[in-house]
Amino acid sequence: MGRQNQRLSQMVADLLILCRMDSGMEKFPRTQEPIFLNDLVNDIAEEFGFLAVATKVKLVSEIRVSQSVKVIGNMEQLYRLVSNLVVNAINYTPPEGEVKIILEVHLNSALIHVKDTGIGIPETEQKRIFDRFYRVNSDRSRQTGGSGLGLSIALAIAQLHQGNITVESVPNQGSTFTLKLPFF
Ligand SMILES: Nc1ncnc2c1ncn2[C@@H]1O[C@H](COP(=O)(O)OP(=O)(O)OP(=O)(O)O)[C@@H](O)[C@H]1O
Ligand SMILES: [Mg+2]
Fold it and tell me: Would you say domain 2-182 falls under CATH 3.20.20.190?
């Protein structure tokens, strides 16, 4: 009951963000603070370590830069964004698989890749997974109990931060979601 309540209030919060963005009320993150992505990636790898252990998936982070990577934005929202990608990667990867969170920079962008060796997403579905409430073959994935909002929220937050998310995936081999954010 407690968990159901939590899920419901999360869903209401998610729908509120999406509505505010639709109506044009929300064009930028509420707060604009400096965020170090190195810390964010390491914190998330640590926070979801338990979930990964519980589902027998290996979770690793790989910081491919020697300097700190700073972006301007809302910490809570960016944390939420990357968590959604990582939780998906863990949930849609069978036991003995691996999830890697990679941080790198390219030109004027910071890139965070969340790469898994999981079930993958057929090419025809890859565009639709960012739609609200859309879940690939909902019978199969219903066991994870999601609502299908995670990626639409992630994309909305990326766009609020002038960024975007792309996906590359091969069924039965795995998926890589890449978040691109302008950095300073
Ligand atoms: N890493 C991944 N590997 C395979 N399929 C994925 C992955 N990430 C997302 N998907 C597919 O995209 C669909 C949409 O993802 P999304 O995160 O929006 O919703 P969800 O995980 O089903 O529910 P929730 O609202 O709890 O996040 C998922 O149901 C799943 O079918
Ligand atoms: Mg999800």
Answer: no
